[in-house]
Amino acid sequence: MLRGTKARNTTQPGSSFSPFGPIQAHPTTSPSSPLHAKVIDYLTRLSRDPGILHICQLHQFRVGSLTELLPWEHPNLLGLNENAGQRILLRIRTDNAEGFRDYKTTRRVLVHELAHNKVADHPPEFKILNSELNAQIEAFERKQQDGTHALVEGDVYEPSAPALSAGGGSGGGNRLGGGDPSRNAASAEERRAQILAATMRRLEREEQEIEQSCGSAAGAASQNGRRTPSGS
C-alpha cells in the first residue's frame, strides 16, 4: 500500500439488511410462464437496490410483500401502498404486459410508495419526505460512485484533469490549457447549473405523473384493506 494511506472499507452499509417480505408475481401469472421468473427478478432487483435499502434503513421502512399491478387492473395507477407498507404493488409491465417498464422510473414509484409508509395522501409533509428520500438516494449513489474511483484514503497523487478545450495563444495557434482559467471555470459552472435545472424540471414532471398515478391516498387502504381507485 502507498505510504500515508489506509485501507478503505468497501462493504456497503446495510448489505445484509432486508426490509422486504415475500416477492410475488401477479396471481394470474403462472409459475411455469417465462414471464414469472422475469417478474420475480425485476421485483427482487428493486428489493435489493442499494439506494432503496439505504433509505429503508435510514427510515426503518418495512414492506410485508412486494408484488405487481397488471396494466389492465387499474390503468390509471403506477403504484399502491396498502396499510402503510403491508403490501406494495407496482406496475412494472408495459401496456401489452409482455415487456417491462424503465427500471429507474419504477424505482421512483417505489420510493413514492415507501413514503406512504409514514404519510398517507399527498399533503405538503408527504412531498417534503418524498423529496428527502430521493435526495438521500442520490447522495448515497454519488458517494458510492466516488468510492469506485478511489479505494484508498489519505495523501495520494491525483493527476489534474485534462483540458476540455484548447485556448488561443498569442500567435493564433492552439495549446493545451490555454484560455482564461476563471472564464473556463465559470462556463463549466454555468453548464452544471443548466444541467441541474433541466434535471430538476424533469424530475418534477415525473413526480407529478407519479402522484397522479398513485393509489395510496388517505382511505385508499384502511384498516380493513379497502382501496380507492386513485390517490391524486
Automatic annotation (TrEMBL):
<feature type="region of interest" description="Disordered">
    <location>
        <begin position="1"/>
        <end position="34"/>
    </location>
</feature>
<feature type="compositionally biased region" description="Polar residues">
    <location>
        <begin position="223"/>
        <end position="232"/>
    </location>
</feature>
<dbReference type="InterPro" id="IPR013536">
    <property type="entry name" value="WLM_dom"/>
</dbReference>
<protein>
    <recommendedName>
        <fullName>WLM domain-containing protein</fullName>
    </recommendedName>
</protein>
<feature type="compositionally biased region" description="Gly residues">
    <location>
        <begin position="166"/>
        <end position="180"/>
    </location>
</feature>
<feature type="compositionally biased region" description="Low complexity">
    <location>
        <begin position="211"/>
        <end position="222"/>
    </location>
</feature>
<dbReference type="GO" id="GO:0070628">
    <property type="term" value="F:proteasome binding"/>
</dbReference>
<feature type="region of interest" description="Disordered">
    <location>
        <begin position="159"/>
        <end position="232"/>
    </location>
</feature>
<feature type="domain" description="WLM">
    <location>
        <begin position="8"/>
        <end position="204"/>
    </location>
</feature>
<feature type="compositionally biased region" description="Polar residues">
    <location>
        <begin position="7"/>
        <end position="18"/>
    </location>
</feature>
<dbReference type="Pfam" id="PF08325">
    <property type="entry name" value="WLM"/>
</dbReference>
